[in-house]
Amino acid sequence: MPKAMRIYETGPPEVLKWEEIDLPAPGAGEVRLAQRAAGLNYADINLRRGGFYLYRPPALPTILGNEAAGVVEALGPGVSRVKVGNRVAYVSPSGMYGDEAPGGYAEARNIPADRLVVLPDGVSERQAAALMAKGLTASAILHRLCRIQSGDVVLVHAAAGGMGTILTQWVKYLGAEVIGTVGNAEKAKIARANGCDHTILYRETDFVAAAREIVPEGVAAVFDGVGKDTFMASLDCMRPYATLVSFGNASGPAPPLDIRMLSQKGSLIVTRPGLTNYLADRANYERAAAELFDLVKQGVIRFDPANAYALKDAVQAHRDLESRKTTGSVVLLP
Ligand SMILES: NC(=O)c1ccc[n+]([C@@H]2O[C@H](COP(=O)([O-])OP(=O)(O)OC[C@H]3O[C@@H](n4cnc5c(N)ncnc54)[C@H](OP(=O)(O)O)[C@@H]3O)[C@@H](O)[C@H]2O)c1
Question: N or C: which end of the chain has fewer CB within 10 A?
């Protein structure tokens, strides 16, 4: 029987339990997937802790894991989209499929075939698992919410993290300059290796003053996955008509915003992406995934293979992500 990291209750990392799971034959429209890698996401921590989501999260017990990749092992009735032996990946945002488990933290699972994209040669399962949820979120940001022009200056918070790494590399590829905030000097080195032109140690330095020193007129965009600790101050380092994309809450949810403030601070735009709409259109999902795989093959989006844990060590991986010890996009390996 395959094993998985399952939670029966919300709470600290120790609620994750490594245990055998029943896996029936795949049903109509489903495939059985041998999973080779799962992405570690802050969203997994939000779901594990409980009390975060505005909508009803999946029922417990559940298996975490919003993004994963593997090999198709068996087909249920009526499946034609993929074949046995195909290498595939998927994104499974918490709560998007009702009570169904996100399901990435398992050695094997059944999943509807129409959620899968086939991996091209040159993109590994590890790379795909590190990319699906975070890369598609970056894709939604850069294609739908905030058009970055060559020469723009963009502020990326937590630039050495999973989202931060992908956004920095992609924004540099678009020809913009990147200022990255980071938690310590080691992360500053990593962020610079990913292409950050400037780094700010925002735990010890006022990042608004530091960003204004680099770009006195203000930045064209802020990409903020930190939330509570950075959201309001970020509005003060933006140029008129700039966009703040608030996509996460690593330090806690961003505070409520009095919309009148946006005119006062320069007719600013504030937006918050989710993946539900972006994935609902299959043609868009395929286009966006194909573009991400292409960026990986071209070497634009790069991952450090050292950023991996055994899936059975997910408790430690959660401890490390929430205590700011991880860097880059981390994968869990079954
Ligand atoms: N909207 C969406 O669809 C979507 C999709 C993917 C991810 N997200 C969100 O994006 C954010 C980043 O996700 P990720 O998985 O890539 O994580 P990550 O950036 O690899 O890790 C979080 C980072 O946030 C920084 N941070 C600042 N204050 C923190 C605090 N109090 N506690 C913990 N970390 C803190 C830390 O970097 P420093 O040490 O450098 O400060 C930490 O490494 C999360 O909020 C996640 O929920 C949203």
Answer: N
